[in-house]
Every structure is written in structure tokens, then in C-alpha cells.
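Researcher: Structure for this, please.
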Amino acid sequence: MRRILTYAQIENRFESFIYGQNDEPNRPPPVRQKHLVNNLISGSAAQKLLLFQVLPLIFYDVIDRLNDLMWIYKCLREIVSIVFSTKIRKSWLPYLSSLTNSFHSLMLDKLPDQITAKVHFITHYPELIRRNGPPRNYWCQRFEGKHLYFKKLALRSSNFKNISFTLAKRHQLRLSWLLSHDCFYNLNDKSISTKFIKALELPIDTKRLLVRHKFDYPVYEECQTLIHNHVKFMRNSVFITKLLYQEEIPEFVLLRHILKVEKSWILIVQHLQTVSFDETLWSYEISYLEQLSVMNLDECINILPHVLDIYSLNDAYFVNVLTRLTV
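Model: Predicted structure, C-alpha cell format:
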């Protein structure tokens, strides 16, 4: 078998890849030669999921040469896109069943030494979804996150005489402190890096847009980051505002400004044109349009309550979406 990349080149690809501002918090740890030799990638579940998601972008120039293994990745990627969806149509389940069976067969044929029980369990997902709905509503990720809190607390406390009592007491004290806040049950918008900006300092196209919507003020309050309904709105992030046609093609917008007008936050977004879907990179190729719009916060998270990033490859721009979308 001809080697495509050396271990050193693979390590360099992982380390030099530039993650988007929204993906950066889940940046996977460095992948070393020992990890590749032992077939063991370190990191948390969120980090491994992100690595799985951006893998074609990291190896975009050699991904076509992995002819046999790419079928396994594409099959699993399509399974993940359905399983991780917040809304799943019943009409998708027969197709999901065929995908899981194909993935099981591909693993037996191409990677028989890597077969685990989970490869079989995945074939039961369609029936599980039919009975209980989208798996995101009952997956164990939140339990793992809660467990991580206790693991860190156990290490930091350095008290192992009665560790159960220590963890329970510290957890109760923390909950008491959180519940004492008046805003705990109220989802108030939280702004970060706020400043006042004069209208003259805004780009001319943005100023014209505000005047057209009767938001013409001499000074605006602007923030770099806004947390609304547990979603972090950051400038230069990408959102999906609607799905077009029967194919449900996503319409993307790029967040340019977050401004406060009449005690409410508004978003100045730039529209993006969806050029095509690249199956090799499993990403949507997009291009920039000169059209700007004013949107409210909920309009941007109605389809997908997550923020996305733009990745540039060979003078083209791509948006990587993990889940399959529907309304």
C-alpha cells in the first residue's frame, strides 16, 4: 500500500489547521504518532466530534485518494447528520436503516479488526428513533458534562476520606448559590465587550440600512458577543435563516454587527449565496453577496440553534454543517 502522508505530515496538518472562532473552544488536542499507531485519539466527546466533522477540511487535498475508506466516512457522516438532527422526519427512517446496514457491512469488509459492539448497536438506531424521537433529547452528552464537573472537583478537593459526602456537599452549595440569583430562571440577554459607536463610524451600507429601517440614531450600543437563549452570537459567525425549495437548501447569513436599538438588540447580517454541496468535503460552498438585512435574534436560530464558521480552501469558502436540516 502506497503511503500518502507521513506521520510527521499528519501531525503537522492537525496542528496547523485553523479552527473557526466558534469551533475553537472544542479544538482537539494534538494527534501524535503514538495515537495513530495505537488507533487511539485522545480528547473529549465534543473534541472528537469536531475532529470527525472537519476531517475532510484538514486533508482536503488528499481526501480523494482514500477511495476505500471514504465510503465508510461518508456513510457514517450521513448517519450522524440524521441522528444529531433536532427534527427527524419519519420518512428518513427507512433510509437511515439502509445507511446503518451499509455501514455495518463496510466495516466488516474494509476494517474487520476495528469492529466493536457499537458498530452493531448503530443498526438499532432507526427503531430507537421511531419509538423515542430525536436522540439529542435523550443522549448522554449532558450526563458526561455533569460527570466531568465531579471528576474535576474530586481532583481539586484532595480529600478522599469521604469523597461522596464532599462531592454532594460542594454540589449542593453551588446549586444554592446559583438558585439565589434573581436571573437564574429568566433568560436575560448577556452582552460581552460592549461599547458605544457613532453612526459615522459604521460602514456606509450599514448606515443606509439602518436609516431605511428608521433606526437612524447618532450613537449606537454595540457588542462583540451576545448570549441569547443559551446561544452565543459572535460577530463574523454564520447562521441559517431559512430552507429553500423542496431540497431544503440552507440560506446562510454572516453576522456583521450586533447593535442595541430602542432597548432591543438587532443584528446586521450579510447574505451568503449557497453555491453547491461538496460531498467530498461534506460542506456547503458559499459566496458573499452585497445584500444586507436587519434581523432579530430569534430569526437566526429558528432553523438551527447553533453558530457556524466559514472555512477557506483554495480561494473558495465553505460552511460545515453537522446535522441534516428540516422544518
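Researcher: Any notable elements?
Model: The chain is about 40% helix and 25% strand. The chain has three domains: 7-137, 141-179, 190-319.
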